[in-house]
Request: fold
Amino acid sequence: MAEFVLNGVVLDLPPDLVTRQIDRAIRAGTYENTEALALMRHVRGRARLLDLGAGAGYLATLPGRIVAPGAVTAVEAAPELARIARATLARNGG
Reply:
């Protein structure tokens, strides 16, 4: 596993999923940055969120620091990514 930290979120990603483009974006702090900024601008403490296509769980983890426990539901259809998203959420307190 390759470990990355992005905006305080620890991501453990299998090397075969980390393309050169994803590696550069994570290291530059631009991975899903537009989405993360928009999300965090609008999330408030009483929000409930649904992340469809959760991928590695990064965007589902960010609001988990603001909203109540259990207020974020992440859905991922790809079994390997769903496993990674669950691990990301668990590792980061989600």
